[in-house]
Structure formats: C-alpha cells, structure tokens
Write a structure and sequence with these properties.
By secondary structure, the protein is α/β, with parallel strands linked by helices. The chain is built from 8 helices and 10 strands.
Length: 209
C-alpha cells in the first residue's frame, strides 16, 4: 500500500534537525511536501539511493485579479502557459465587483506557504493589492510599471509577487513586464544584506504594534 508523506511530516523532520528523507518504493510525496523539500534543501534517499530534489517548483505560479483585471488576467494566463509555467488561476472570473484584499491574501498565502514560487496580482493600479500582500511576513510584493522596475524588483529586492495595474498598462506591456520579472534572477551580495535588514525589521515589529 502506498503511503503519502505530507508537508506536515516534512516540517516535523526539519524542526528536529533532520535533513535526509528516506523513502521506500511505496512512499509518495504530496505536492506541498515536494515544495517544502525543495525550499529546505532536504536530501531524498530512496531505498539507499540519493535522488536529486524535485524540479517542478520553479514552474508554479498563482495568479489572481479583482474585477478590474479579469481581462488582463486571461491574457497573462495564456501567455504564461506558452512559457511552460504551471498556472493556478484563483479568480475572480467575472467583472462582478469583488474586494481586492481577498484576492491579494489568497495569492500571498500560497506564496508564503511554498505552494508556488511566484504570485501575480492584478487590480486597477497595482497599488492596493501590493499593500495588502506586503502585510504578510516574508512576502515581497512589487508594483511594476515597466521592464526596468520588474528587473530591479527581482535582481535587487528578490520580489516574490508581481503586482500589475490593469487600467494603467496595455496588454503587451503587461506581458513584457511579466516576462522580465520571471526571467530575472536575484543578484544577492549587497542586495541580500539590505533584505536581511528588512527581515530584521519584520522580526522586531511583526504583530507587535
């Protein structure tokens, strides 16, 4: 009988300082467990043989929009699929009014929990959803308005959520910004030092005000 190994079990192993996961041929990892292993650097040993870590994590993106961004979202979902990304569209799916904090929260939780590597949120201007998403510890949501800001958000700030304004950008610009954001890599070095300072601020003040 196959045994499913969950993210909860992986977290317990990591909490106890265990960095190797020994599997039998009947063990199956859940998607969230795979994501957690990928993020933690845990080594998989299957019946005595070391395996490389799962590689599907890098291809997962969650995208969502409020009612103002439904059309733009459809364009980006199709664009991302041509780039071979695995896309989770969390809505909304019509132009009936919804509240952007609900959408931004859904995306932020998925990124924070390791379900996907990146999130994309679309509202009218790209501002309110970024404000919402950045309330979550560990989230770095960037409102980008051209290719330069998208490149900088990734290279300098290691942004993990891209936020776009459907009423301020055309369809081709939305695609080019998204493409640059997802193809750019964090440069580390002095930029990591600055992110460490942001993290220290989070640790000091998070849920304390």
């Amino acid at each position: 009988m196959k045994r499913a190994i969950t993210e909860y079990e992986i977290l317990n192993l990591l909490k106890n300082g265990i960095k190797e996961l020994h599997l039998t041929k009947d063990d199956v990892l859940t998607p969230l467990a795979i994501d957690r292993i990928k993020r933690s650097g845990m080594l998989i040993i299957k019946e005595g043989i070391k395996e490389s870590q799962p590689t599907d994590y890098k291809n997962k993106i969650a995208i969502g929009s409020d009612h103002t961004g439904v059309i733009a979202k459809k364009v980006l979902v199709e664009f991302l699929k041509t780039k071979k990304f695995e896309v989770t569209d969390i809505g909304t799916y019509s132009e009936e009014s919804v509240d952007y904090p609900d959408i931004a929260t859904n995306i932020a939780v998925r990124v924070k929990g390791g379900e996907v590597e990146f999130g994309i949120i679309i509202d009218a201007t790209g501002i309110p959803s970024a404000i919402t998403a950045n309330k979550f510890k560990g989230i770095r949501a960037a409102t980008c308005y051209n290719e330069f800001s998208a490149k900088s958000a990734r290279e300098h700030n290691n942004a993990n959520i891209l936020v776009l304004g459907a009423k301020s950008l055309g369809e081709e610009t939305l695609k080019s910004i998204t493409d640059v954001f997802l193809s750019s890599k964090f440069l580390g070095d002095r930029h990591q030092r600055r992110l460490d300072k942001i993290k220290a601020i989070e640790e000091k003040f998070f849920n304390k005000s």
